[in-house]
Design brief:
Number of strands: 0
Number of helices: 3
Order of helices and strands: HHH
Low-confidence stretches: none
Distance between the termini: 120 Å
Organism: Ptilorrhoa leucosticta
Keywords: Cell cycle, Coiled coil, Cytoplasm, Cytoskeleton, Repeat
InterPro entries: POC5
Function: Essential for the assembly of the distal half of centrioles, required for centriole elongation. Acts as a negative regulator of centriole elongation.
Shape: rod-shaped
Radius of gyration: 32 Å
Family: Belongs to the POC5 family.
Structural class: mainly alpha
């Protein structure tokens, strides 16, 4: 009887220790992943801000070139605008790839949670089978108490994982909204530069017409 009691207590301790280790490992992994995602997001936002600053400088250069009515400068700026468009297109493709990469990671994380949940359910079944084969009386009461405790821990872990997945999903949606806003601002800057460029061309045409008429 004493030997069986020791075995039961050891088994219970091992189960609780294993569940605790799983929980700690998952929490640590989640913290590292969130820190990495925050760093990547901050770097990406900084990159977008730099691109916006470059667009502002390019717009300012366009205004200077129009005021000088210098065709050479306008040609150079047109080429620079084409290069800038290429860079923006590459940045858009990279952003789409990064969003897809985050979705893939999220799916992998969800699959890992599902596999662990399946393993936990399997442990419950094994525990139930062992309990049914054990003796009645106080042994059955100890087994029932251990099972209830394990089920509570499993339910708590499942709730924590679902909350983490929801938080990651909300973060992803927020980043999508920020990216869409940045694209909208970029389109507005491009439209402004195009209008400024057309105004400059019209001014040059009027000046040329005036010169021909005066001659």
């Amino acid at each position: 009887t004493n030997c069986i009691t020791v075995i039961l207590l050891t088994f219970q301790t091992n189960i609780l220790t294993e569940l605790k280790n799983w929980k700690l490992n998952l929490i640590q992994h989640h913290k590292v992943q969130m820190r990495q995602e925050k760093e990547k997001h901050a770097a990406h936002v900084k990159q977008l801000q730099n691109e916006m600053e470059n667009l502002k400088e390019l717009l300012h250069t366009y205004e200077i070139s129009i005021s000088r009515k210098d065709e050479v400068v306008i040609t150079n700026l047109t080429q620079a605008l084409e290069k800038q468009k290429e860079r923006v297109e590459l940045m858009r493709k990279f952003t789409l790839w990064r969003i897809q990469h985050i979705k893939t990671k999220q799916e992998e994380y969800a699959n890992t949670i599902a596999a662990r949940h399946f393993r936990t359910a399997l442990m419950k079944k094994v525990w139930a089978a062992w309990r049914s084969a054990s003796e009645v009386g106080w042994k059955d009461k100890v087994a029932r108490a251990c099972q209830l405790r394990a089920e509570d821990v499993c339910v708590q872990l499942t709730n924590d994982y679902e909350a983490k997945i929801a938080e990651l999903t909300a973060t992803l949606e927020q980043r999508k909204a920020e990216i869409l806003q940045l694209h909208s601002e970029r389109d507005q800057y491009e439209d402004t530069m195009k209008k400024a460029f057309m105004r400059g061309v019209c001014a040059l045409n009027l000046e040329a017409m005036t010169m021909f008429q005066s001659k």
